[in-house]
Structures are given as structure tokens and as C-alpha cells.
Amino acid sequence: MHLQTVPRTITVPGRAVAADETLVRPRVNGMVTEIIYTPGAPIKQGDPMFRIESATYEAAMVQARSTVASADAGVRQAQSAFDRAQRLLGSGATQADVENAQAALDQAQATLAAADASLTLAQMELDWTTVTSPIDGMASLSNVSVGDLVTASQTTALATVTTLDPIEVDLYSPAVRLQQIQNEITNADTGVLRNLNATLMLENGVTYDAVGQFVAPGFAVSTTTGTVETRFSFANPNFQLLPGMFVRGQVAFGETSAFLVTQTAGVRDRMGNLTVWVVEDGKAAQRVVTDVGTWQNQWIITEGLNEGDQLIVDGTSMLGAGADVTPVPVTIDDAGIIHDAAPATGGN
Fold it and tell me: Structure pTM?
């Protein structure tokens, strides 16, 4: 056995979720006159999706402009009266006249400010008769038809826009396992986590191309599953991942020095301890070892083995402590299958 630098990973179930999902709702009342977008097609923020009848809001806009013009004229008239009263103060106008003119000017300016605000609101409501997408994403089927009456207070959305690229995946780690990893990090066994990432395997067994970047850790343990949710973000240009899809995620969180032991060579005893057989002075000896997970069908052993130990990987079910052993060199392929080692060949 030889110490190796082994990647530390944990494989856990997960579920894809939309990075962003927005319900598209009307902000004004009226009849739907046009559905502009194509359901199931990509849409950009600000792209028009629906049109609502605008005649009422166009009329309100004209009225608001007229009110602003009238209020502006009132301000000019009040300003002129105030200026005249100031000029005539002491020669035909009293201080009371000046104060009254000032009050009239203030009132006219307030009326103009209110008219401007009403014009702004009228413009906004007219703009809102064109319902646009609030985010980039994929648009759902419409929940309304042309001719339907919609209101600003309705609870039913007109449609939904979902961001699929990037997409996020929630991975569910057992709380006990996550605590063990955190302890190892604190003890500097695996180094400091700076670039936590994850890879995915889809339900059909295919490995997803993109590597996910860490978004946020979980801060609560599920009372029903005992797991902690951790979120990663994945590029999804072809929309291969869809919200709700179940996946398996492998999270890499550093490296450690350890021995790799094929899983067929290790057995759990009744106490849950992992045990292996080694050769000591030509005899079989059983060791209790400490594992920190698996890597490529092999146990990652951090305690219980020493550099140069000979591990017994086959025929362990018939072994007893102290039994004579004649070691035969073997190799183990990536699938964990044991093969006799090829004999060395000498040259001429």
C-alpha cells in the first residue's frame, strides 16, 4: 500500500430549480387585445408579451396634459400678480396684498406639482397597457385569451417567465456527513474551501457537461430527511436541465493523503467499523481502519494502514487471524475487478 493524494468528494441526491421565476401580472384594468410572445420561446427582459386596451388610458393622458397646461398658466398668472404687488408695495399695494399674492403663487405651484404627478401616473398606466417580461427566460403558455378582462388586483398570472440558463441545483447532504466534512476543514485535513464546485449525473446515467459553482450553503436541517440543502449554479445553454429534474451531484471539497482500498476488501463489523486483512510476517492479520468516504469504487483510508502494507483483496471470507498466507500480486481495474498481475519479463 502507498499513500496517495486523493480528491475528497461526496455524492448526494439533488433537484434542479429555476434560478429565477416570475409571475407576469397586469398592472392596469382592461381587456386583453393581443398576445404578442411565443410560448416556449426565449424572451428578453422588456420584451412585450400582452397588450391591454389602451383607449381609456390614452384619454386620461390627454386630460392630464390639459390639466398640466392649465396649472402652468395659473402659475404664470400668480407669479405676475406677485411681482406686481412687490413693485407697488408702499405706493398702492399693502404688505397684506404682497402676502396674499405670495400665497396665491404657492397654491398655483402646488397645483402644478399635483398636475405633473397625475401626468406621470397617466403615462405609467398607459405604458402598462403593454405588459412586458420582467426577466430573461423562457415564457410559459398564456393563462388568458384575447378578449379576456384582466385587473390589476387579480391573483391569476397572465403567464410565467422562468430563467433556465443558468439553472440552479439544490444538493441534499446528510447533516452528520456535512458536519464531519466541516470538522475536517476546520482541522485543515483538506485545506480551506475556496472554489467549491460540483458535477452532476442525470437520471439516464449521463454525466452533465458543465461544472457547477457554489451559490449558497444551507443553514437548516430538514426535520423529515435530516439533510442540509446546498445550492450550486450550472450553465444550461441547451436547457438540458429543467426545474424539478432529479440528479445526483458529486461535490469536491479538497484533497487528502490516504490509502485507496478496493471496496471488496473491506467489511463492516457489527459495530460499524470498517476492517481489512493484511499480511504480517506471512500470516493474515485483521485491521480496523478509518475511512472518509470513497473515490472511484475504493475506500479512502486515513488511519489503520501503513506505507508498504500488503493488503489481502480476495478470499477474505475464509480467513482467520494468524492463518498462513502466500501473497500473489494482483491489479485492480477502474471498475474494482481484481486481476492477476502480469509476470515480469526479462530481456536477453
Answer: 0.67
